[in-house]
Amino acid sequence: MDSLYYDVVSVADTELIIASTDQGLAFVGSPNAGLEEIQKFYPTYELVQDSELNKPVSQRLNSYFQGQDVLEEIKCDIHGTDFQESVWNALRNVPYGTTQTYQQIADEIGKPKAARAVGTAIGRNPVLMVVPCHRIVSKNKGGSGYRGGLEMKKRLLELEH
Fold it and tell me: How far apart are the first and last CA of the chain?
């Protein structure tokens, strides 16, 4: 059984669960969510609490909430379908302080008719903020969904602007 090393960290007045493998960050949870959220993404993994392994990520998240653009430096260890991984890679290229639409991401990955599927892949992103799905908005620049909640999405976009 594979292990996932997690910690509950306090960041910007909220608790987040973060988890890593030996290869990198594998999960950033929704605000104030419990371990059941991580188990939805990694049902076969053994969860082991490890604050020390996750300390660099915790520090970068705190710096991010102080307005610093430091999340792209975090190495991730996330896996999905080829399509999901292409979407997540495209998200990491969306610059800090900007937004793009689902359609723009679909175009970028060479699947211009897959905007809706892009939205589904974004919803399966296991590392909120680090793979910046909050920077993706609908065509009319409206809210759209966000695993961390629309209030959190709004907060992150305001922080970056």
Answer: 42
